[in-house]
Amino acid sequence: MEMMLLSFVGPAIQPEWGLTANQESMISTVAFAGMLVGAYSWGLVSDTYGRKKGFLGSAILTTSAGLLSAIVPNYTLLLILRFLVGIGIGCGHVYSSWFLEFVPTPNRGAWMIVFSTFWTVGTITEASLAWWIMPTYGWRWLLGVSAIPSIMALLFYSLVPESPRYLTTQGRLAEVRQIIENGAAANQKELPAGLLVSDHIKIMTYDNEPSESTALLADGKTSSSQRSSSSVLMLLSPKLIRTTLLLWFLYFANTFAYYGIILLTSQLSAPQSECDTPSLRSENIKDPSLYTNVFITSLAELPGLALAAYILDRVGRKISMEIMLVSGFVLLLPIITHQNEMITTGALFGSRMFISASFIIVCIYAPEVYPTNLRTTGVGIATAIGRVGGMVCPLIAVGMGSGCHQTVPVILFEATILLAALSVVILPVETKGKKLPDTLDLPVQVQ
Question: What's the CA gap between 310 and 320, in Å, rounded?
Fold first, then answer.
């Protein structure tokens, strides 16, 4: 919701504060810059101190900065606060990794799609709130109401269990046992008899001394800077470097295209006669067609999710991504040139349906590839690089796309989607039906 509201807040603030198109786009750009910082930082925090610690810090920051944004007196302070909100919501990938670590292998893809559906519910809810609040109460009330989910995350924090997989890699088996017993009791099941043990085995050299790789997998006696550099080195190890680099680009491309389509929707919702008249932007905020088009294209994500849920565990992650990217590419083609409202809305609806599904699939694929001790850091860095695409896309969709000059932005989005489809082809690993790895076994050379 905090990201979706940018489609409405920017166009509302521009005439009120007399902003240029570039200043308007900067409101979205700083939020993505914050997400870049947050995605990496919360990933490192969650791999070092636990998933729950990441949840808590994120909720506190997002709630406080989100509420303060609603009463901000000027443009500069708004940018600072939206940057802080971006840092807070940069923790989103940690929630996905946490949920993934509870889900059994056979139906993992379908359950992750169900989990991701709440992202879509948030975008639809935000579009509905904007439709109701913006014409009457204005953008400040929208910012305030949109902070409610973060407040709820704080209220329910104590009910959230830590990831048993994370605790296992840290050797905290008593806590794992307690969480499993609570889960069994809630599901009215009995645990099998026996002693809970960890299969987290240290890598040893031939002289039975812990190897350098073992040190990289150690559980918390290293400093944050050592753990950070070690994690990056492991992500770029020969076993992971190809997957890591391709995932970095796929996150960038999907973020760039997804948010580009969202911002294009609000930019292209005005009739052609209004395209070159900035003074009419304030009237557009009260025009129901803006909210209708954004609401309709937000609904597009639901059939995309349904299709992804159906094919993900059948054909695999890679083929599913290819289907979504190629379909999104084809459906976006008509609006390279200006079209009437029906064709424009239809093209944006279809392309958003498939690109949002592609985005969700890559967000499922990435944590399945990385081991538990690197999962949130690896996905966090990929998400951070993706946010670079989010930082750039407002400058393209809003800055270059203003005045209905959409040809160059749409061509750039299309080229990025096509390159993403080609990148999926050369991904080395298909994760369908495979168990989640807990550690990365690196080859050890003994002198």
Answer: 10
- C-beta separation of 290 from 267 below 8 A: no
The token pair at 419 is 């390159």
Lowest mean pLDDT among 34-38, 52-56, 148-152, 224-228: 224-228
Indicate the SS3 state at residue 204: strand
Helices (DSSP H) in 50-69: which residue ranges?
51-69
Q: Cα(332)–Cα(5) distance, rounded to whole angstroms?
A: 23
* Collapsed DSSP state (helix, strand, coil) of residue 203: coil
Three-class SS state of 379: helix
Beta bridge pairs of residue 210: 204
Helix axes 288-299, 241-267, angle to 10 degrees: 150
The structure's pTM equals 0.72
Rounded (5°) CA angle 117-305-364: 75
- Find the distance separating the first CA and the last CA of the chain, reported in whole Å: 55
Consecutive H or E run containing 258: helix 241-267
Q: How confident is the model at residue 318 (pLDDT cuts 50, 70, 90)?
A: very high
Q: Give the tokens for residue 103.
A: 């889900």
Q: Residue 269: what pLDDT? A: 59
Phi and psi, residue 223, nearest 5°: -75, 165
Whether residue 26 contacts residue 37, with contact meaning beta carbons closer than 8 Å, is answered with no
Show the beta-strand stretches assigned E in 336-446. Answer: none
Strand positions, DSSP E, 39-103? none
- Asked if 355 contacts 250 with a C-beta cutoff of 8 angstroms, the reply is no
The angle formed by the CA atoms of residues 428, 350 and 132, to the nearest 5 degrees, is 120
Residues constituting the chain: 447
Q: What angle do CA 379, 39, 365 make, to 5 degrees?
A: 25
If we measure between CA atoms, which residue out of 128, 127, 98, 132 comes closest to residue 112?
98
Burial-class residue 185 by CB neighbours within 10 Å (0-12, 13-18, 19+). Answer: exposed
- Residue 249 pLDDT exceeds 70: yes
